[in-house]
Amino acid sequence: MPSEAAAHADFSIIRYAQVWEDADILLEALNIQPEDTCLSIASAGDNALAMLARSPRRVVALDMNPAQLACLELRVAAFRKLQHREILELIGSIPGQRNEALFMALRDDLSPETRNFWDARMPEIARGIGHAGKFETYFRIFRERVLPLVHSQRTIDRLLEPRGGDERPGFYTDHWNTWRWRLLFQVFFSRSVMGALGRDASFFRYVEGSVAEKILTRTRHALTLLDPSRNPYLHWILKGRHPDTLPFYLREEHFEVIRKNLDRLEWHLAPLEDFLGEKSADPFTKYNLSDLFEYLSVETTNRLLGRISEISASGSRIAYWNMLAPRSSPESLRTRIRPLTDLAANLHLQDKAFFYSAFVVEEIL
Asked: 356, 348 in Cβ contact below 8 A?
């Protein structure tokens, strides 16, 4: 079936140079086992690689944007050939002066299409490929142009210092939550500005209410109930790197097992709708669907979830995020899909990628 999302947005640019979804809660939700065959929305590839750390039999990454698959392919080549610190430099997690040389060491391992894609983007390579997406550019504008109007560098550094949970609300109230913070947040994270500079404007067509207000509420949660000092997503937004706290796939303790399991990963340029229409000899048992349904109508969402319930064995799990548009399996599928409501709610409270309004975990009956 034709992709609804592709009909409304440009899927030829790098929209996300990183995956802004917390693999820690994803992996706990899916409970991946060695016999599992996993399907993941590719995006930049971070969470498809994270799934390899659980040593499943197979991981299939899908995207309808060739630019996103170029991000994944370059990461796979980096995990095959580079050392851990070199990968952090290539991503931009830590400062580095040799990114172009690192890329040249990987270049011959890339497909011709991916090689040409990155050859045309050497400035992004030099800066760190984690900066190369439209969404990351949006955060860079916030970090460099908006945030200095609100807080000094010293206040930003203080926010990211370790402090106890009983101290964080006071710091937020007394030092962070100023009228300037609230005003500029409401402007910069509004539907119009975010649609123009960050996510595609069409991604908000199913969203009701104030975009900024919803994100501001989740941001308070991240700055008070969660620990900012251990949040890699917050570090990148505020500092443009994450040297001391890393997303799951970049942590050194997972490096060797991900490298060892790279041959279990494959990727395809295809919308989920088309891919699920094909009969697979190796049915999927674990699904990372990212925030895909955010961009789809309720009718299309229900149709896709129904298809997954038809082709998946009992006990298979599905995990996905809602950012602003509420999506979950409908009552009409309750005989085939069971929401794991308590598990999802508990994991959502821990979600370091804090701007999502809900995390959904469901199980095939």
From this structure: yes
Q: What is the pTM (predicted TM-score) of this model?
A: 0.92
Q: Is residue 81 part of a domain?
A: no
Sequence-distant (6+) residues with CB within 8 A of 218 are 354, 355, 356, 357
Q: Is there a single domain that holds both residue 322 and residue 268?
A: yes
Alpha helices in the chain (DSSP H): 23-30, 46-52, 66-81, 84-91, 99-107, 112-119, 122-127, 134-141, 153-159, 168-171, 179-188, 191-197, 211-224, 232-239, 252-260, 272-276, 298-311, 341-349
Angle between helices 341-349 and 23-30 (to 10 degrees): 160
Torsions phi, psi of 362, nearest 5?
-135, 155
Range(s) of the domain holding residue 270:
5-70+248-364
Question: Given 239, 274, 306, which residue is the final one in a domain?
Answer: 239
* Confidence (pLDDT) at 251: 98
Cβ atoms of 143 and 238 within 8 Å: the answer is yes
Q: What is the pLDDT of residues 165-194, one digit of tens each?
A: 999 999 999 999 999 999 998 888 876 777
